[in-house]
């Protein structure tokens, strides 16, 4: 008896589901705009967003050009948004704003499009094209609706996205430092600040610029070190001038004293602020000229040495040939 009762209940549930499915399919294929309109909102209110989205999409053909057109198109996008289909929802809202710029739904549609774009952005290691697209859309929204209630959220999104771009630029340049390519590291880090002087990692970037120039000088051949230590001193002075209380200051102070020692200059830690950068610029030019003269001299000596080696080889060959001739006689 229990088995029969269970079977009847199960069959009733199946028939009910089939009936509901058939009813939904009938609605979906119906040309009755009023019936479909009411049903779409019913599903939307019941949070059955996937079904609501399909009905609104189908309904958009029937209401095209009518007074319901913008409402149907907006809720089509909103249903996809609530269903977490942000890619489709972004397309819906983008089309909506283009078609109904004066609709009362337009400001919210633009904001929801921004939210969809934001949700589709990627972490900083990956392609940042979606990030740039979202930033552009947010800036346009802020400019057009400066007093909108969503402005605070938009600014938070903007801060997060800009930081993501800053992180990508900083980490990409810092990679050269990790690879111990200190010339490329300094150039890349300086370019980061050239592109965006307000980078959130500015302090770290200035620190690694100074560290790159110091390590490059330290690892250079002796004849090149003085000129390159002067470059480090420039970077050091730039750092302490802007960030005198930085936690990096102590480490850079130590390197500064070492560089001064290598340059044969007296070091007075109490007079760091009185150092004249013009003196370093003049000495750098002088050292650069001396380095060029030395390079030319070395190349000349190398050529003369190579010529001597060739001449000695010729003489040796002649002596060998002469000795072999004497033995034959």
From TrEMBL:
Q: Where is the signal peptide?
A: 1-17
Which superkingdom does the taxonomy of this entry point to?
Answer: Bacteria
Task: Give UniProt keywords alphabetically.
Answer: Cell outer membrane, Membrane, Signal
| A Pfam family annotated for this UniProt entry | YfiO
Q: Which Gene3D superfamilies match?
A: Tetratricopeptide repeat domain
Q: Which InterPro entries match?
A: BamD, BamD-like, TPR-like_helical_dom_sf
Q: Where is the Outer membrane lipoprotein BamD-like domain?
A: 37-212
List, alphabetically, the SUPFAM superfamilies matched.
TPR-like
User: Does this entry carry the keyword Signal?
Assistant: yes
What the entry lists under NCBIfam families is as follows: OM_YfiO (TIGR03302)
What protein name applies here? Outer membrane protein assembly factor BamD
Identify the coding gene: bamD
